[in-house]
Design a protein that fits this description.
The protein is an alpha/beta fold. It is built from 6 helices and 9 strands; from the N terminus they run E-E-E-H-E-H-E-E-H-E-H-E-H-E-H.
Amino acid sequence: MSILEIKLPIHETFQSTVQGEGYWTGSLVDFIRLSGCPVRCPWCDTGYADGGANLPRQERSISELLAELKSPRVVISGGEPFIQKHLPELVQALLAAGKQVNIETSGSFWQEVSPDAWITLSPKEHINPKYPVISQFWSRANEVKIVIETGREVDFYQQHLSAHPKLCVYLQPEWNSLSKSLPLILQLLQQKADYKLSLQTHKYIGVQ
């Protein structure tokens, strides 16, 4: 089987939108959302809070996915992309097609992927201790995005963040508690001036 014939479980794809979060905010991107995630974040905005058993899932080949791409950068998200055994092949095919590749992950599962892929680590160990961050991700990630709900999340990961001071760290308010979490982030930024605020700008402008 050629790499283009490999199939992956797809939750959804959409094209020609903008990245709303983190370092690449405002960049034109396509999204490939892979299906499935066991972490069960209670505020998951893609529907996996309860495991996602009834969410859409379609097996699609890499060649089909490549054929619909429109933007120079592709964001692979989920669900949790690193649970999919063919993630490295998908990344390889996208890079070979001349695309820039971002992967968004909780860091709870590890696979080797091309060093040319940008990795956004959004750790969820403080929510579900059964899914700790695999240690390699703290060195491999290009940015860390921490969703803030209580204000204690930064302390939970501080040992790792301090050990990797060159990481770009973004603090993002949990959308459903925005009025509470945003002021908490502004307080945290006074203590951590090298961290940055990440807003889900795609929600403000009404795009996927």
